[in-house]
């Protein structure tokens, strides 16, 4: 389970808080011949996010809109949160079939200036 503080630290370490990077969701699927391996199955831009204090989650979502969340939009808002909120779980809603997905890892694509939040199905 990844939490907000994990995200903040990884963004700082891997891309030095580069504000122009766009957040994307990366899909990982189990390899049918070897379930211990994961196969990269594509990515989609993240269109928004919301802090849900009651659920103790930072929820990202993909709604097909033209909105793109950039690191420069997200990080300043997260840095002013209190310490309890830093432990909120990271979740992603892709669509009706894949809602409330756990974010299992992070990555980056320097050439495309994308920061990737990985989910597994």
Identify the notable features of this structure and list them briefly.
2 helices, alpha/beta, 121 residues
Describe this structure in words.
The protein is 17% helix and 40% strand. It has two helices and seven strands; from the N terminus they run αββββαβββ. The protein has a seven-stranded mixed β-sheet. The chain is globular. The model has no long low-confidence stretch (mean pLDDT 94).
Chain-wise SSE layout:
Elements lengths: L3 H12 L6 E9 L7 E8 L2 E5 L4 E5 L9 H9 L9 E5 L7 E9 L4 E7 L1
Parallel strand pairs: 1-7, 4-5
Antiparallel strand pairs: 1-2, 3-4, 5-6, 6-7
The main pleated sheet reads as: 7 strands, mixed
Strand order of the largest sheet: 2-1-7-6-5-4-3
> How much is the radius of gyration in Å?
14 Å
Order of helices and strands: HEEEEHEEE
Going by helix content, strand content and strand pairing, the class is alpha/beta
Shape: globular
Low-confidence stretches: none
| Mean of residue pLDDT values | 94
Q: How much of the sequence is in beta strands?
A: 35-45%
Assembly context of the chains: single chain
């Amino acid at each position: 389970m990844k939490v907000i503080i994990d995200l903040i630290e990884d963004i700082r370490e891997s891309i030095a808080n580069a504000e122009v990077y766009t957040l994307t969701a990366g899909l990982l699927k189990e390899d049918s011949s070897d379930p211990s391996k994961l196969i990269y199955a594509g990515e989609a831009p993240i269109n928004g996010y919301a802090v849900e204090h009651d659920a103790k989650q930072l929820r990202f979502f993909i709604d097909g809109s033209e909105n793109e969340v950039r690191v420069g939009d997200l990080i300043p808002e997260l840095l002013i949160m209190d310490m309890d909120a830093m432990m909120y779980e990271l979740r992603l809603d892709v669509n009706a079939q894949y809602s409330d997905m756990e974010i299992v890892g992070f990555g980056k694509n320097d050439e495309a200036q994308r920061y990737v939040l990985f989910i597994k199905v």
